[in-house]
Structures are given as structure tokens and as C-alpha cells.
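As a next step, the fold was encoded as C-alpha cells, giving this record:
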Amino acid sequence: MPTARVVDLLPQPHRLLLSEVIGSFSYALDMAEGLTPGHSLRCCWLGSKMGQLLALEAEDLWDLYFVLLLKDIGGSSISSKLTLLFECDEKIIKSKLKVLDTNNIVDLLKFIFSNTSIRSNFLTRTAKLLPLILNGKYYLNELFRTRSERGADLVIQLGFNDNVADAIHCLNEHWDGNGQADGIKDHVIPVSSQIALITEVFDVYFQQNGIDCALDEIKKRSGKWFSPELVTILISLLKNNHNSTTWQSFTSESNLKQQVYSLQSVTTNLSIDDERLDDIATAFAQIVDSKSPYTNGHSTRVALYTDAIANELGLSVGRRRWLYRGALLHDIGNMGLSNLLLDKQSELSLSEKKEVELHSANTFKLLHHLQSFKELSKVASAHHERLDGKGYPKAMTESKITLETRIITVANIFDNLMIGNGCIESLSLVKVLIIMEKQCDTILDRDCFNAFKKRIPSLLQN
């Protein structure tokens, strides 16, 4: 068997900016929320401009910047529950919840009837509708609370301060006190939370129906959802920039990144080291895995197995660390999949399988946003390629599949077989190894598999 191609050069060390790393990962959060790509960046650009007009202190602008990029970080934690409640694509539900007023009983009932179990028969749909009609507001408020608490925990794990965590926790509070979570009101709500909410609602409506509709909705909610002062500032900002090159940057994704990343120079253009990057990769792996109960801990285990194989094969410490990140993030493309597929407890149809296969291309797309992950995006996204050329997403031939990808593939298949999911039962270690042995030379690299077998005793012991 030909020797596997090794990635020729690891990315050369360079200055990694926290703003670019978090900004790049924000695309994954947009995807999970069913929002137009660049949503978080647009909110960051608009909200940071509002913060400047409010004459916020430098440290408050810094906090605001990352609140705006990470406002949806807790969203994956409620994906499975939303799917169970509504029996609908949770990404569609999430995007609509951004602008739904749960205190308006008419709007709430319309939302429930138009989004609940819409493809089911009468009896099944009725069984889903009744508890939502009776307790829908309570269920949604509890989910908002879970989302807020999980989001606050994650930003602390990412290394941000309590102010950022508090703002994430209070994101769905409303100016009049009728929001979700704790029901706080007016100036008790952190200003970063207020700005995040108003920019979020504006961008959702702007992407759907244009600027006039978006501004009309913002005005309607002045004094209810939003501070009248912030509404005035937002309208003034948009009026002054509507025909400028700055506004064109807001509406053009190709210029958006540069505009947003340059905003950070107003505060602190903080560079990060390998340890901080590892923490960020670990946190986002947990975000990905929290999307479904069947993927809980999957990415962390795959990274652990990947490192064990790489160590056995004699890869350098630097390459192992680089590859470990790729293994942590190999399934980040799952953020774009519906939980109707991830949580399904019966065999997937052919069309559903094709849809699931898109997660590999999504992984490439999401990791490719970060300059230092360009090469890693190719390695991590290819973990479903096969040596016989029958894999996906590119049906790569054996000579094109790198050693690093082959390592992740062994680790990924082992964990999938051991843990199982909604439509595949978990297997014993003996059965898993027998299956994987048969897959060698067609799906799996035999050298990588043999290296893994040598490490299994120590892995099980630990």
C-alpha cells in the first residue's frame, strides 16, 4: 500500500488575533441559528459603532465587541429540546424566535401553529400542539434561560471576564422587564446586552425584508424591547451611513471581516498564544457536541484517540497539537445540520444521508474562515474519505488522503461504533475491532489502525 501523504508544511507561527479567531468561529454560531452568514459580524460592526456613539470606555467597548460576536454561543444547548418540542428543523425555529414576542398571545399561537409538527398526521400534530398551546410560553422561557446560562458558562471557559458572561446571560431581557430569563428591566440590563439585542433584531429583519422594514420593527419595539435612546442612536447611525462605503461594507460579506476586525484597534488588538487557541477549540468542540445527546463528548474523545495514534506513529509534538485541534473541530459542520437528522431514531433515507454528508463540506467552509486553519480545514473535513475512493465529500483517491486525515478517520469510526447514535446501536470493543479490521485497506489505513490498537489498553485504563 502506498505511503500516506503527510501535510508538507504546518502553518508557520504568526500573530493570531483574538478578534479574528472569535470572528471566524462566529460563522458556526450563525449557521447553528439558521441565520444569514456573517450575522454576528454585522451585529458586531453595528453594535460597536453604537458603543462609540454612547462614548463607552475602552474596556466596555472591548467587552461589547466580544458579546456581539458570541451572543449565540449557548444556542446549541437547546437544539435537541426545540426539535423535540416542535418536531421541526430547530434552525428555522431559532431564527424566528429571535423576533417573536412571546408576551403577545396572538403572535405566540400563530408561531406555534405554523411551526409545530407540520408534516405529521392530525393525531400526532394535535398531541404536539396541545402542550405548547397550554404551556408554550413557559417552555420557551425555560429554554431561553438554559441558553443564557450555558452561554455565560462558555464565555468564561473561553477566557472572557464576568462582564461578558453577564451580558450574554441577559441577552434576552427587554427594556420593559417582560423579557426572558430573569425579567430585569431598563438600566439594570447591561448595556452590552441591550445593544446585542437591538442589533440582532435589526439584522434578522434587514436580511429578510430590507432596511425600511427593519427600522419599522425597531421603532415599534422602542420602550418595550429596546431603550428609546438606543433606538434613536441606531436610526441616526443608519441614516448617516446608509449611502456610505461603510454601509456597503456592512451589506457585503467580502468586506465585512476587514471592517469588523479593524474595529478592535479602537480597544485592544489582543494576540493569543497556543494555549488560548487550544481552549477556544475545546470550547467550540463542546458547543458542537452539545447539539445532540448522541454526540455528547464525541469530539473530545476523537481528539484523544487521534493524539494517541499520532503519538504511536511518532508525529512531532507540534504536529500532534495541530492535529488535536483538527480532531476537536472535525464535526463543526454539524452546526448546519438539523437535529431532525442528528436525533433521528430510525434509519436515514437516501436524501437524508446526502444531507448529513454536507457536514464535511460545512467543516471545511467554517474552518477555512481562519487564515491559520486553512490547511487544517482540508485535513479535518476529509475524515469521511475512503482509501477506495468511495468516501465524501470529494471521493478522494488514496494518494490524496493525508496521514493526518487517516488518523482522524480511525478515531472517528471507533467512537461512532463504540457509542452509537439514534439509529445505530453501540457495540462491544471486540465487535468494533473486528469491524474495523475488515475496513482496513478500503476505508481505513492499516498502519493507523494498528497504531490505535496498541494504544487501546492505556486509553481504557485512563
Summary: The chain is about 65% helix and 0% strand. The mean pLDDT is 92. The chain has two domains: 33-77+146-269, 274-461.
